[in-house]
Amino acid sequence: MSIQEKLDNLTQNSGVYQMLDKQGLVIYVGKAKNLKNRVSSYFVKHHDSGKTRALVANIDSFEVLLTETETQALLLEAELIKQHMPRYNILLKDSKSYPYIAISNDKHPRVSFFRGKKQEKCQYFGPYPSAHVVRDSLGLLKKIFKVRQCTNATYRSRSRACLEYQIGLCSAPCVGHINDENYQQDVKMMSLFLAGKGKQTLDKISQKMQIASANQEFELAAHLRDQLIDLRKIQERHASNSTADMDVIAVYQQDGVNAIEVLFIRSGKQVGQEFILPKNSSHQAVEVVLSAFLPLYYVGKDTPKQLLLSHQLLDKKIISTALNTHIIDAPGKDKKHYLNIANLTVKENLNQNLLARFRKKSTLVHLQSILNLKKLPETMECFDISHMMGESTTASCVVFEKGVPKVSKYRQFDIKNITPGDDYAAMNQVIFRRYSKRLKNKQPLPDLVFVDGGLGQLNQAIMVMDSIGIDEVQLVGVAKGEKRKAGLETLITVDQGQVHKINLPPHDPALMLINHIRDESHRFAIKNHRIKRSKNRTTSPLESISGVGKLRRAALLNYFGGLQEIKQASVDEIQKVHGINLALATKIVETLNASR
After folding, report:
1. At 412, is the secondary structure helix, strand, or coil?
2. How confident is the model at residue 489 (pLDDT cuts 50, 70, 90)?
3. Continuous H helices in 95-146
4. Which is nearest to 433 in space by CA: 414, 449, 419, 451?
5. What is the pLDDT of residue 270?
6. Which residues are CB-contacts of 155 (< 8 A; sequence separation ≥ 6)?
C-alpha cells in the first residue's frame, strides 16, 4: 500500500506514529490528538524547517499505534523514543539510573548506596542527584544513628567489633554491643529522618531520651541526647521557608543551540544540578524542546511533587497528568529565586560550551593555515608503533573529529612478518592495511594524517599512499624534541620532494592539539602492546598448534619435563609421547622452531 493510500484510510483517533526509512528503521516518533491530520501534514509540498524537509525526504513508510487518551500517547511516545533513538527526534543521552539510599530487611538492617533495579525486600530513599550526595548522606548517618554499612559477608564474619565501632561510627550489632530492640529503634529513627520527617524524628528521640533518663539508663539517654543535638544542628543548617521537593528546569537558546539546566531542590535546599544538551534540537523553539524533554527525562523515574519551568507548555495538562506532578510556570516570590538561579546557570553553561566549540574550530583554522591545507582538517588520524625490543609489535590508529577524540573509531593492528624492531616496516604495514581497506570499501578518508616519528616513518607512509593511489591526504611527521621534552616537537612535511620542518612555540594551540592526538595514539599503542605481550608471556606456544589439546600438552610436558626440552626434541622423540603421530610431531617441531 502506498503512503497516500495509507493516509486516505488513516484514523482520526489519538495515538503515536513512527516514520520508517527504506531499511525499515524508525527515524522519527511523534504523538497526535488526530493521527490523520498530523501525519498528513508531513506530506505537503513545502516545509519551512530544513530538519522537517530532511525527515520527509527519508520517509519510506509509517506505522501508527492507537491510544485512548493523549496522556497515554505521550507516555508511549517517550518509551518508543528511548527504545529506537530516532535520528530526527530530540534525544537525551542514556545515563545511569539515579542513586538511592537503601535499608535492608536483615535481622540487623544495613544502610547502603544503591543504584539499579529495586527489590521488594528493601526500603529506598531518594532519588538523589549524584553519587557524592548519597555518600555524604551515608557519612552523616554513620555519625548520628550508627547503623551498620558493612556488607553482609563482612557482618557475618565478625568475631569482634571492627574499627567503625572503635571510632563511634557503628553500634556493632554483629557482636552484640547493642541489643536488637535499641538497634531497630535507631533504624526506625533513621528511616523517619530520610523520609523528611525531621520534626517527628526529633520528637520521638526526645521522648525516648526522657524515658531512658527516668529509668536510669544513662548510657542510652546520652546516646539519644547526642542524636538529638546533631539532628537539631542539621535542621538549623537547612532551615528554609519552602519545604517542598521540586526540580527547577530552565531552557535557553543561543546561536540555534538549545540547553537545559535542572536544579534539584529537596526540603527547600539545592542539592544538585545537571546540564543537558539535547541532540537534534538545533533551532527548535524552546517550548518544543521543553515539551520533548520532560517525558524523556522523567518517565520511569520518581518525579518530584513539583516541576518549576522557565517557559509555558502548550501541553501542560497532558504532561502534568502523565508525570503525576504539579507544573509551575509562573512562580511566586518564594520560588522565583530558584528559577533565576537556573536561568543564570544555563546561560553561563551554554556560553562556556559554545566558547569551547569556537576555540576548537579556531584551533583547526590555525592548524589549516600552518600546514597550508586546502580544507579545514575536521577528520584527523594518527599512527604510532609500540614494541619492547622488537617483541609483540603493535600499531595504533586514533581518530579525532572536529578536534575531539572519537574513541569508538580507534583501531589497533598486530604487526606480523617483519624483522623485530623494524619501525619503518611496521609503519609501512599499518598504513597499507588501514587505507587499502578503506579504499576497497569506499569509506571516507581523513583530511590529515599524523605519523609519530621522524622523516623515515613519514617517508614510509608517503610511499604507501602513493602506491595505492591516495594523494589528497596531507601527511605530517611528528618528531620528538630535544630530550623528548613536550612542546619542542618538530612537524615534518614533504611537498614535491622538498622536506619542510615546522617548529611552533610550546603553548601554540595547534601544537597542543597535535600533542594531544600524538599522546592518544601513544597511549593506545602501549596499552595494546602490553596486553599482547602479557598474553604471549602467559600462553604456551603449544596452545597455538592445532591438534595439541590440553591432554596432549600435559603429556608432552610430563614426558620431557618442560617447554625448552620439547623445543630441543626431534620428531622421533616427540612421537614416543602417547597420542602423537608422525604428522603431529612434525607440526610441533616446525612450529616451535619457527617461534625461536
Report:
1. strand
2. confident
3. 131-145
4. 414
5. 67
6. 108, 110, 148, 174
Give the H/E segment covering residue 104. none
Cell of 549: 589439546
Q: Which of 509, 513, 440, 442 is nearest to 476 (CA)?
A: 513
Between the alpha carbon of residue 60 and those of residues 65, 308, 403, the distances in Å are 18, 40, 35
The pLDDT tens digits of the residues spanning 171-198 come to 999 999 999 998 998 898 888 877 767 6
pLDDT above 50 for 240: no
C-alpha cell at 518: 600524538
Cell of 390: 622488537
Contact 234/140 with Cβ under 8 angstroms?
A: yes
Q: Which residue has the higher pLDDT, 223 or 62?
A: 62
Q: Estimate the crossing angle of helix 423-440 against helix 455-467, to 10 degrees.
A: 30
Q: Is 577 left (phi over 0), alpha (psi -120 to 50) or beta?
A: beta
Q: Is the pLDDT of residue 433 over 90?
A: yes
**Percentage with pLDDT > 90 across the chain:** 30
Instruction: Classify residue 446 by burial, with Cβ atoms within 10 Å: 0-12, 13-18, 19+.
Output: buried
Indicate the burial class of 354 (C-beta count within 10 angstroms; 0-12, 13-18, 19 or more): middle
Please tell me the pTM assigned to this model: 0.52
Report which secondary-structure segment, H or E, holds 448.
strand 448-452
Provide the 3-class DSSP secondary structure of residue 266.
strand
Q: Which of 504, 422, 503 is nearest to 456 (CA)?
A: 422
**Phi then psi for 15, rounded to 5 degrees?**
170, -165
